[in-house]
Design goal:
The structure is a single chain. This protein is an all-alpha fold and 93 residues long. The protein has a domain of 61 residues. It contains 5 helices and no strands. The protein is globular and about 50 Å long. The model has no long low-confidence stretch (mean pLDDT 89).
Length: 93
């Protein structure tokens, strides 16, 4: 499978402008709130996900996957994984 470069660029720059299905947009809105401040997730977010077609299992899967990525990226950042030696030591190039 080949990803459409224009689509990927739109997602990276501003997913609000990307040609997404309503279901994908609701999911990404939820993941954005979860990522920025999970304490701001409300039952209304879950209601919108259900209205978009996600069941409880789907909502749980979205939550677990997004949370895992957030967690593992923070661990990698804290340990300097993927950074060059200068950045890992806190020295900007």
């Amino acid at each position: 499978m080949t990803l459409d470069e224009a689509f990927v660029k739109a997602l990276v720059e501003d997913y609000d402008r990307a040609p997404l299905s309503p279901q994908d947009r609701v999911m990404l809105d939820y993941v954005g709130v979860l990522t920025k401040d999970a304490t701001r997730v409300t039952p209304d977010h879950h209601r919108r996900l259900r209205e978009a077609g996600f069941d409880d299992r789907g909502i749980l899967q979205i939550t677990l996957i997004a949370s895992w990525f957030n967690y593992i990226n923070r661990v990698a950042d804290a340990l300097g994984v993927g950074r060059g030696p200068a950045r890992a030591e806190g020295v900007e190039p």
